[in-house]
Amino acid sequence: MTSRYQSLTYGIRVTVDPRFSLAESDPGEGAFVFAYHIRMENLGDQSAQLLFRHWHIHDAAGEDQEVDGEGVVGQQPLLTPGQTHEYQSFCVLTSPAGFMEGYYTFVRPDGARFRVAIPRFQLEAPLPVMEDEDGPKLMN
Question: Cα–Cα distance between 46 and 62 in angstroms, integer?
């Protein structure tokens, strides 16, 4: 079962749908891969362009990372009123659980910058996971 997470800031709704990627993970080596799908929707009456992203990634093993960068997956989309932008990405944790959260920095046509919250979303591998000669598998 997966959960969907949402936030709404200054007319921009962010929806996150995270999933554990067993096929890409290597639990025996402490590599748990989580994919996430993000949808941004401009519900306001003004255009807004995405400039930057900031992520806080927490691993249940106690490791925290801060990640900053321009745009998302190489793009800085302009969202006109009613428009959406979707993308997928991933992160790798050293434990089967953690969370991510952060914000996007957008700019309006008049030059005003503002932050849009990325809701905290949980990253949880369904356990137990076992490893055999064919790779990782969920135990029944």
Answer: 41
